[in-house]
């Protein structure tokens, strides 16, 4: 079964995501030019990973999961970076919501919310403006404006530390609706549901 993530989002932005093992290597997981893409797996700097696109009934939501496992006897830090870039124009408003721990974008007549959760919590570094980090693994974070008008892009970084022989996960999602309150409630439901939801690394369904 083929899934078209670009049309599914009904969006005016392009998306890419990168998984990095701190100081050891990184791998591009997804970008909008890879279509269709439902499942991907591999190993980066000895860390085993699986990227899964989870099908949604709603055309205005998308959610992905990354499963990671550290098969070594040393702890490692793993970071998931998600970048968005507007196509042809800028977003009217991009801001970080501390209460929701998410980025919220006003795109013409609708709102879009970008969030996620990991096996170790919800803390996330965020950017309200476009950053082109090129081939580097690290991005130096400095104080961004919490509210940016006419932004050309935004991003989120989630990081977890895996102990020896430990597994973990990242969820990341986006949703779009004219009703901001509806988005915030749906986002909260995702947090409550997914923070305790585990999928074994050897199960890709």
Tell me briefly what this model is.
With 205 residues, this protein is mainly beta. It has helices at residues 5-9, 180-194, and strands spanning 13-21, 25-31, 39-44, 47-54, 61-69, 76-86, 91-97, 102-107, 110-118, 125-127, 147-151, 153-162, 167-177.
Explain this structure.
With 205 residues, the protein is mainly beta. The protein has 2 helices and 13 strands. It has helices spanning 5-9, 180-194; strands at residues 13-21, 25-31, 39-44, 47-54, 61-69, 76-86, 91-97, 102-107, 110-118, 125-127, 147-151, 153-162, 167-177. The strands form 2 sheets. An 8-stranded antiparallel sheet has the order 3-4-5-13-9-8-7-11. Strand 4 and strand 5 form a beta hairpin. The two termini are 13 Å apart. Mean pLDDT is 83; it is low at 1-10 and 135-140.
Q: Please estimate the helix content.
A: under 10%
What oligomerization state is this entry in? Answer: single chain
Number of helices: 2
What is the typical, i.e. mean, pLDDT? 83
Number of strands: 13
Order of helices and strands: HEEEEEEEEEEEEEH
Overall radius of gyration: 16 Å
**Spatial strand arrangement across the major sheet:** 3-4-5-13-9-8-7-11
Sheet with most strands: 8 strands, antiparallel
Backbone structural class: mainly beta
The portion of residues forming beta strands comes to over 45%
End-to-end Cα distance: 13 Å
Q: Which residues sit in consecutive blocks of at least 5 with pLDDT less than 50?
A: 1-10, 135-140
Shape descriptor:
globular
């Amino acid at each position: 079964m083929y899934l078209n993530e670009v049309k599914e989002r009904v969006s005016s932005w392009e998306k890419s995501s990168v998984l990095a093992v701190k100081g050891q290597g990184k791998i591009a997981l997804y970008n909008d030019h890879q279509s269709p893409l439902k499942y991907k797996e591999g190993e980066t700097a000895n860390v085993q990973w699986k990227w899964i696109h989870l099908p949604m009934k709603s055309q205005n939501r998308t959610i992905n999961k990354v499963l990671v496992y550290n098969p070594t006897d040393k702890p490692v830090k793993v970071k998931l970076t998600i970048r968005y870039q507007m196509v042809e124009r800028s977003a009217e408003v991009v801001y970080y919501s501390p209460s929701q721990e998410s980025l919220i974008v006003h795109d013409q007549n609708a709102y879009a919310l970008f969030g996620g959760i990991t096996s170790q919590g919800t803390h996330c570094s965020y950017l309200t403006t476009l950053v082109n980090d090129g081939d580097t693994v690290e991005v130096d974070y400095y104080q961004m404006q919490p509210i940016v008008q006419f932004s050309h892009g935004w991003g989120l970084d989630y990081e977890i530390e895996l102990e020896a022989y430990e597994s973990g996960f990242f969820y990341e999602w986006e949703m779009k609706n004219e009703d901001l309150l509806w988005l915030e409630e749906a986002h909260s439901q995702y947090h409550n549901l997914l923070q305790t939801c585990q999928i074994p690394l050897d199960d890709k369904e």
